[in-house]
Write a structure and sequence with these properties.
By secondary structure, the protein is mostly beta strands. The chain has one helix at about 5-20; strands at about 25-30, 45-50, 60-65, 65-70, 75-80, 85-90, 95-105, 110-115, 120, 125-134.
């Protein structure tokens, strides 16, 4: 059974997520195709690139009754390989996955917004926005 949490409790969850991401330096890892069942599972998908998150990694807030964590952006890196970005794993500095999120372009309504989904080796990956809400 799922127990509903108050807004203040969900904001506490977001604060805990931010603290965990910030410990040891959080990362956003960009992959092709689809994520595994959970962020605890390793992925066999191609890693297209990674961005070191700022510290603190983002701002806490609330909107429309949801607790939010908005990552500090923009962040830019060069692609390690060519492919189409399908999802992003947020991980701590040791590589432990915290959350897998779908990626899209502006207007897609997805939590991770990029400048482009198709990337080429050595080309730019730019994280334009990332909003996590609970």
């Amino acid at each position: 059974m799922t127990t509903p949490l108050s807004l203040i409790a969900r904001k506490g969850q977001m604060a805990g997520l931010r603290a965990a991401l910030d410990a040891g330096g959080g990362k956003a890892l960009f992959y092709i195709n689809a994520p595994p069942a959970t962020p605890d599972d390793a992925t066999a998908e191609t890693l297209l690139g990674s961005i070191n998150l700022a510290t603190p990694s983002g701002a806490l807030g609330d909107a429309s009754g949801l607790a939010t964590l908005t990552l500090t952006v923009p962040q830019i890196t060069n692609a390690l390989a060519s492919g189409i970005i399908g999802w992003v794993r947020l991980a701590d500095g040791a590589g432990h996955g915290f959350m897998d999120l779908p990626a899209g372009l502006a207007g897609s309504g997805l939590p991770v917004i990029l400048n482009a989904l198709q990337v080429y080796t050595g080309g730019e990956i730019q994280l334009l926005a990332c909003l996590i809400a609970a």
